[in-house]
Design a protein that fits this description.
The complex is a heterodimer of chains A (about 475) and B (about 575). By secondary structure, chain A is an alpha/beta fold. Chain A is about 40% helix and about 20% strand. In chain A, strands 5-4-20-19-18-6-7-16-17 form a nine-stranded mixed β-sheet. Chain A has a five-stranded parallel β-sheet with strand order 11-10-9-14-15. The relative contact order of chain A is 0.19. Among the domains of chain B are: about 100 residues, Urease, subunit C, domain 1 (Roll), CATH 2.30.40; about 50 residues, no CATH class. In chain B, strand 7 and strand 8 form a beta hairpin. The model of chain B has no long low-confidence stretch (mean pLDDT about 95). Strand 8 of chain A pairs parallel with strand 18 of chain B, so a sheet runs across the interface.
Amino acid sequence: MAVITGVTCPVCGTFCDDIELIIENNVIVEARNACAMGAAKFLNYSAHRTKKPLIRKNGELVEVSMDEAVEKAAKILVDANYPLMYGWSNTSCEAIRTGLELGEEVGAVMDNTSTVCHGPSILSVQDVGIPSATLGQLRHRADLIIYWASNPWSAHPRHAERYTMFSDGRFEGSTWKSYLSRLRGVMSRKKIQRASNLVLKQDFCFTPQVEEGLPSSVHQKRRRTIVIDVRKTRTADAADCFFQVEPGTDYELLQALRVLVNDGELDVDEVAGIPIETLEQLADLLVNCKLGIIFFGLGLTMSKGKHRNIDAAINLTRDLNKRTKFLIMPMRGHYNVTGVNIVFTWQTGYPFAVDLSNGYPRYNPGETSAVDILSRDEADATMVIASDPVAHFPRAASKNIAKHPLIAIDPEVTPTTMLADVIIPPAFVGIEAEGTAYRMDHVPLPLKKVVEPPETCLSDQEILQRILQKVRELRRDMN
Amino acid sequence: MTELIIKNGFVYDPLNRIDGEKMDISIRDGKIVESVKEKANGINASGMVVMPGGVDIHTHIAGGEVNSGRLLRPEDHVKDVEVKTALTRSGVGYSIPSTFTTGYRYSKMGYTTLMNPSMAPLEARHTHEELADIPMVDKAAYPLLGDWWFSLEHIRDGLIEENAAHIAWMLQATRGYAIKIVNPGGLEAWGFGRNVHSLDDVVPHFNITPREIIRGLCKVNRLLNLPHTIHVHTNNLGKPGNYVTAIETMKCVEDLAQGDKPVIHITHIQFCAFKGSDWSTLSSGAGEISKYVNNHNHVTLDMGQVIFSNTTTMTADGPFQYGLYNITGNKWVNHDVETETSGGIVPFKYKRSSAVHATQWSIGLEIALLIEDPWKILMTTDHPNGGPFTSYPKILAWLMSRAAREITLSKINKRARKKSLLPSIDRELSLYELAIVTRAGQAKALGLKPKGHLGVGADADVAIYNIDPQRLDISKEYKVARKAFKKAAFTIKDGEVVVKDGEIVKPVTGKTYWIDVSTSMPHEINDDIKKKFREYWTVEYENYPLPDSFIHSSFPIPVKAEV
């Protein structure tokens, strides 16, 4: 039995690096400190995986040698006029670097999953910039935390514990005590209710607490958390205060807050379903904190308004910096989606949707982004790595992926691999192969190799390196 | 065993006091040697200038802030693209070129060694990943340590030796080259949106002043025997009247100097040489600064010259960048790093028509020309803050030719022209002096022994330019010289010809230098840092230091510390 400490968790953008794994006979038997999502991956990653390369022959996927699969993949890429190479956010930066070299060699369009997630956030950053920080800065200093259209309790389960409301920093402490007492209040109310149901045989109703505006707890001198969302999430339950926005009106709410923090006045009774008096109190709260942070999620980037929502959110943050210190950060999903933007940018200048078909990087999201290229049926071959676009792209785009040769580098069985012509299953990065990945706040951390991969599985980087080598050989032979 | 001989060039090698002598340079296995065999490959450099490869002491080319700048500015890249060739990777420019393009463009100008001056220790892994993708040059990075909580606490408590040992750990952990200090105290204050405004302001929550930080780290630097001095970006950068702060900063370590050895490097001095009480009364503090530097030997400077261009400013000085954002209303990136530092990015356009920008342009050149000893003032633009590094040949032209300066002067804002000291300065730098400010002086200030000269044993990094000093009067025909400096006739890296006629002929990867300091108490320090790790940072102790295998062509320089 071996205990490996300080393991990074290759699941979400929180990218916890304090996981302890217990390994017996090359199998992970226990994952300490991991959340449910992390533990599920560490303990079950190998349950349903492909172990050997497959090629579609006469409509059937048949097992082949690595060399044959690599050669076939290389041939597809060399023969294609306008190949698309998509995915990348669940693999290491080392693999991405090699992937870009391959993409350049074959004149591919390189796109990653941010194209359908925080792509609008990136467009916004390119419009107005972004005042942000590393997560530790917020753990130490943030006294006002806003989760806007994001639900870390379910999607980034350890975010609050490691970096925000339940973390202890130099200048601000954890608020777990007040959370517990609130929880206790709720529990005892429920108990009384149940008891009264049993004894009185009738529903006992508390008169709901009617508070004027915001609950008093948000004015306490401690770290406070606010959730703004279209529905009451688990995160909202844990927060000091929750604002329910009418769906599709985040933009109005953000702009209204901008007016209020700039001491303007609004001649309406409510915005986004929230009374102006309450919003005025919220604006005061924003202005009077020592350091505030907005974490925003896909509820903002992928709802009506898209990057204009983010423009408004970042502009609100910019405005607030005239009055206090305020920061903003996107809640990135995959563990290395930040890294893929970073590597794309340092090699090509652009974070996603990079068209290398002209021999130099060209960037025009909407034209050079994967969904658009596929919807117009322009890509005559697709390579997907560490992603599953067929399950997530619009139907027309998925249909066109299937129409042309498709290479999938993925250990999982997914709708994409099921349609693929070549499947090369790699080792799981962060478990069976090492590398580097970037946390959502741009902090780079090592991905560790803790167990040996099956003999037939190479790392993503090695596979790409082999394809690149083969592509160069084929090109040489052609000349 | 590969040999190469550069024949009949006019050699400018100031560290060996060779001033335009016609001689051969012999190279074997990447090093300069006495002589090589007759049949060695030869480069005919007759009628050309031969210099050591260029060295840049301060250029933001890699890491978190540089890359955020790249991401921020697609409009910067779209008009300046590099197409993939059989030898080279594709990329984009202009002010923040992609990594490969950065390496190629420097190499085409005859540069072979670059120093990346600002690396947040927590994000060192990022900087080194990018450095690995910068081909053609040797490189190193300076970790930002002036606002590191350990530094602040140790120096406040008078624990200089303790701090020295911790910084030794940090240099090793981040594979760093020198101690970088940016707006000391100000970055910590910026954590809560504040700043410090003089050397004696107290840093909130830490009860320490910028003066104490600079002096403390200067002592630490000496205890560690680091080859470079502390590398300081002063307080109050970019504010009218800040030349006083710059002089006070130099003064505050005057007594720590031993002999004539410099103990402080003030970087991009142009940005710290503003006189006047506000922007409307802005004038040049170059006279005062150069007077001080002419009378003191404990300081080296680099220019931070401004180029009239559309560039991208980026520094670890978060509050300064916020100020710049307030002035311009431009897009603004801020990136604070827990327990260590901050950072900011704002695109910026320097215009000839602006009195302030034109005065800044003038200040940089004034300082470079008024400081008599060229070993004390090195040529940089603080790339990309003053302008992109590709403008270096322009600056050389201004330095070597009064006529070149006058032409630009005639085009700038009238008010700035009236105030400029440049018309009163006749000095024109010779090729020998240009070799000092672009390579010899830079390598000397860095303490980088195998660089910046062509003596036996030096690294065979050589730049050959198509300038015939016997026929060409560079002061009159500065345009010819400028063109020659833009495209080196040959660049030789580690004994191999990598650039010919300004084009890459052989892509190579360079070394990454870092300082491996040995102290007497590495284990105690390890334990101390480990103990506080979870309290200070949000990553685990074991994931913080970079393993040697991570560094591309790692080249440690061993140093023995006095602690």
